[in-house]
Amino acid sequence: MNALSWTWIWMGRVNGASWGESLAACGMWNPKKKRSFLWQRVGPNQSHPRIIMSCGCFGASTLKKKRSPSLTPNEIDGFPLDNVKSFSDKDLRLATDNYHPSKKIGRGGFGTVYQGTLKDGRQVAVKTLSAGSKQGVREFLSEIKTISNVKHPNLVELVGCCVQETNRILVYEYVQNNSLDRALLGGRGSNIILDWRKRSGICMGTARGLAFLHEELVPHIVHRDIKASNILLDRHFNPKIGDFGLAKLFPDDITHISTRIAGTTGYLAPEYAMGGQLTLKADVYSFGVLILEIISGKSSARTNWGGSNKYLLEWAWQLYEEGKLLELVDPDMVEFPEEEVIRYAKVAFFCTQAAASRRPMMSQVVDMLSKNTRLNEKQITAPGFFQDSGASSQKKSSFGSTSYQFSSNPSSITQLAPR
Q1: pTM here?
Q2: pLDDT in tens, 175-214
Q3: Which residue ranges does the chain devote to CATH 1.10.510.10?
Q4: Which site in 37, 138, 148, 348 is 20 to 30 Å from 294, CA atoms measured?
Q5: Third-level CATH fold of 180-415
Q6: pLDDT for 208-258, tens place per residue?
Q7: CATH class of 75-173
Q8: d(CA 308, CA 74)
Q9: Feature table: binding site
Q10: Could you tell me if 349 and 380 are in contact, meaning their C-beta atoms sit under 8 angstroms apart?
Q11: Binding residues for ATP
Q12: Which are the contacts of 391, defined by CB distance < 8 A and separation ≥ 6?
């Protein structure tokens, strides 16, 4: 057999076929017959170049087509999804017992979340997006592809999605200890005790996750809805930020600002709530409020702190002004390092300054929390906050010798006076 014959056979072999399969692909070999077509037509001592090369090319092409299905990327409607799995509605109904109420583990502005178990036994969180997310399939998948490429230890991983008729469903990794608000704010069935080590770790991990979204991703992602219910805790109480990137899937008129979802108002940066000025610094503000919640174990959405209908940020600032910041600490925390707790509270005030330009970047916040940066209290200016409807009449509150007016309008921005 000459070199061209070996070339033809080799072309079949490199595609993973056996010697017989390489010959059979071109119809040159039949194991039931004594002589192959090639042997009969060319002969044992001949090798016609045109026959050999054409058969070789045809064989390679045939074998490649035969093997291609296993190499086809995961896709929906021709749109490739490299890092995310496509699920059918049937798959997810089976995983969640047809979305049984007992499987419901959360509800937010973007949809309802159910605990599910896939066929392979993997635990997942299945988020059925609300009707407002009904955008075009390709536009939706484009955003999902972006989210699926975002990987960080402090971000919830997107496992897959379902786009079937009007369904828009996301499948996330299941995070064992559920959301921070349940653990911290006394959600239903919560018996988790968070000591300072866990709380400080949650602050630091969340800061790192936000710093990654803001400064390491290109293009960056503004979360827009940082709050305790969007911080999930794994079995070791490491925080994972959920719902990042989802805001783009919804038109502006149905986001959390207009719907006034309970528990969100107290986190809103004033420039974002009133003027729609969405920047990275809006997330920084929300993170500052979150720190105060973690320290105090109290909700930022309620207005009954400090004995005179104050928001959490307002009350915390008053305690800071009066030199009584340790009174902010959750009474359930029996032991804690006082200096570190005070440091974290001061970082919260840096983050919630009324002027967005004065708030630090999240990478700076990470350094501030880790004691890598000396805090200059003289640089802290007064926080501002967004007050939603609920004030029935005008009221005054006084910190020291300075009075502050609160409006009875449905919503208003208030800046507390500086020190």
Answers
A1: 0.73
A2: 999 899 989 877 555 678 899 999 999 999 999 999 999 9
A3: 180-415
A4: 148
A5: Transferase(Phosphotransferase); domain 1 (1.10.510)
A6: 999 999 999 988 999 989 999 999 999 999 999 998 887 666 555 444 444
A7: alpha beta
A8: 57
A9: 127
A10: yes
A11: 127
A12: 406, 407, 408
